[in-house]
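Usage

Read records sequentially. Each one opens with the input sequence:
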Amino acid sequence: MSDKTFSFSFDLKFEAEISDLSEQQINSVIPFDFKGKEDFIKFYLTYNGVYFPNGAMLHYYRIPNENCYTAEIESFYRIRSIGDNSEDVSLADIWGYAKKHSQKAKEFAEIHIPFAGDASGNDYWINISTGNIKYVNWEYQFEEERLVASSFKDFCLAIRPLKSPVLPNLQFGSYEYKHF
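and closes with the structure output:
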């Protein structure tokens, strides 16, 4: 029997709401199948939203074996269940905002799912056909989107505390993290 709970690979300090969502509720909001959906489901069955009070950084490569880049991550968005009266921003809220932002953003949102964000209002999205994770910077128009992970699991494995001094070597899809 496989473990049904989700945990981050690094000692991250975070605040989370213990999930009361069912797999059926998650699938009703996210009906698409994509690479890494099992890990996405596992995450939302364990936590319904996560906040990193001390900050966290995503470490990623634009080109394999080249320089490591970082991007801040503040939280994973909640999935609202029936009767949920929370005022926290939810995954569906971000999806809705994006669809109203511009035609290009609407087209992007039709094939991507938002699930996390940084403190500046920029978001991380899953491509529903590939499972790739993209970072969208809304500050400088929608045009700035970057591939940051090959799957939800790889994304989560690449999150480190804000003040992490060194990255351990670990496999990231076909990329390898190295000390820098």
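Summary fields computed downstream for this record:
- The helical segments are 23-29, 37-46, 91-101, 103-109, 152-157.
- The chain has a mean pLDDT of 81.
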